[in-house]
Write a structure and sequence with these properties.
27% helix, 12 helices, alpha/beta, seven-stranded parallel beta sheet, globular, single chain, 26% strand
Length: 431
């Protein structure tokens, strides 16, 4: 039913291995498809460059079985990249890559960073293979192998674990992907990306068992496309290097339901196009705060739009709707001033976790499954909160976000509505 590339922990090289496999299969003429497990806005865009096809997110915490099955459906083999470690998810394991594999019947292959181990790889792989009898490992790929001598020590130990060895990629600094504080640099910003993808594919051709991996990726399940009602008929969507974290499955479903998506670039100082809803998704406004503050035509049109239609910001978009945004160097930049909010990146602090949220008013009434992931600090937030929220355990959280007039926003990235007729795992945690 498809292949899941997972790992014992983040930083093991899953993305590099996934991109090499995807590009190598595409060069063979295989119509391979990719998906990303969990709430990741960055890796999927690299997958799309490798395959030339859309890459949805498959989130076992936020999405019900029908939505997951529909997003996984399509023509051609399916390769899913896991998030974090194989069994890492909510405290009860929901939302992990292993949970997704069980729901969709994916074959799991473990990518192990072997740079600092030898025979110890054996008990590590054996432990992962035996941890969950419902999810036996279909294979292991060793990454960052130092030499032939190193591989000679690793391979017998991996074989003793009873899990097929499907390849061993050498340690090679030319295969590293550029990164920043939320993960990889965005695909649109990575210079020479196609050359890098071809280098990674060359390594996959030489060092991975592509035929066996392709057999594991075979996918013959089909399901009807998701039906998600759009929040408006015409949606003005900020889209550029500062606003890139919009979920493709939501945009595609809204368009399929008859909505029109009208992209525009605040960084290019483009005005907000006429629409029934203005949406500012997350991204990296902290890296472009000066340019955004100088985008007078965009800012004026945003304020004008908020007098007539709903304007909503998620995470980075939420910060831009505020009054000021302080960058990492301590410089404060004036933002739109639509919400009584001041945020800062001068003292970074990680906020991370699934959220079940409900907004009594606004363009996205709940309940919704959502995710929070940012390093910004809130210096000031006054006025009417937007969301009631619970975390992944069901514990109540302080109200999130703000609402003033037609403007609203929060740090929550909305993933999917919670449908009581097809309960997602997060439904129990909804307010």
């Amino acid at each position: 039913m498809g292949l899941l590339l997972a790992a014992p922990q983040s930083g093991s090289g899953k993305t590099t291995v996934t991109l090499g496999l995807l590009r190598a299969l595409r060069r063979r003429g295989v119509p391979v498809r990719a998906a990303k497990s969990g709430p990741d806005h960055i890796d999927g865009r690299f997958h799309e460059r490798a395959t030339g096809r859309p890459c949805p997110n498959l989130d076992a915490w936020a999405m019900g079985p029908r939505l997951l099955a529909s997003l996984a459906s399509g023509d051609g083999p399916l390769v899913v990249e896991g998030a974090m470690g194989l069994f890492d998810g909510a405290p009860d394991g929901r939302g992990s890559a292993a949970h997704l594999a069980r729901l969709l019947g994916l074959s799991a292959v473990l990518v192990v960073d072997a740079a600092r181990m030898a025979q110890s790889v054996g008990p590590l792989v054996a432990g992962f293979a035996r941890h969950d009898p419902a999810l036996p490992l279909a294979g292991v790929i060793l990454n960052r192998v130092g030499s032939g001598r190193h591989l000679a020590a690793l391979a017998p130990a991996a074989a003793a674990a009873g899990v097929p060895l499907l390849g061993a990629l050498p340690r090679d600094p030319t295969l590293l992907l550029p990164s920043r504080h939320l993960g990889l640099v965005q695909a649109e910003e990575a210079e020479g990306l196609d050359l890098l993808l071809d280098r990674v594919a060359d390594a996959a051709e030489r060092h991975l068992d592509l035929d066996r991996l392709l057999a594991l990726a075979a996918h013959d399940a089909s399901a009807p496309p998701p039906r998600l009602p759009p929040p408006a008929r015409r949606i003005a969507l900020a889209r550029d290097a500062a606003f890139s974290f919009a979920y493709p499955h939501l945009l595609a479903a809204w368009e399929a339901a008859g909505a029109t998506i009208l992209p525009f670039s605040p960084l290019a100082d483009e005005p907000v196009p006429p629409a029934d809803l203005v949406l500012l998704p997350g991204g990296y406004p902290e890296l472009h705060a000066g340019a955004l503050a100088r985008a007078g035509r965009f800012m004026r049109s945003l304020r004008d739009a908020a007098e007539a239609v709903d304007v909503h910001g998620e995470c980075g978009g939420y910060m831009v709707l505020g009054e000021t945004l302080e960058d990492a160097d301590g410089h404060r930049h004036a933002m739109a001033g639509l919400l009584p909010l001041a945020t800062s990146f001068r003292q970074r602090r990680l906020h991370l976790g699934y959220r079940a949220v409900h907004a009594p008013l606004g363009p996205f009434p709940g309940p919704w499954a959502a995710h929070e992931f940012h390093y910004a600090s809130t210096l000031r937030a006054e006025g009417e909160p937007l969301l009631q929220a619970r975390d992944a355990t069901g514990a109540a959280l302080p109200p999130m976000g703000l609402r003033r007039g037609r403007a609203s926003g929060s740090f929550a990235h909305l993933i999917a509505p919670l449908d009581p007729t097809d309960p997602a795992p997060a439904l129990e945690a909804a307010p």
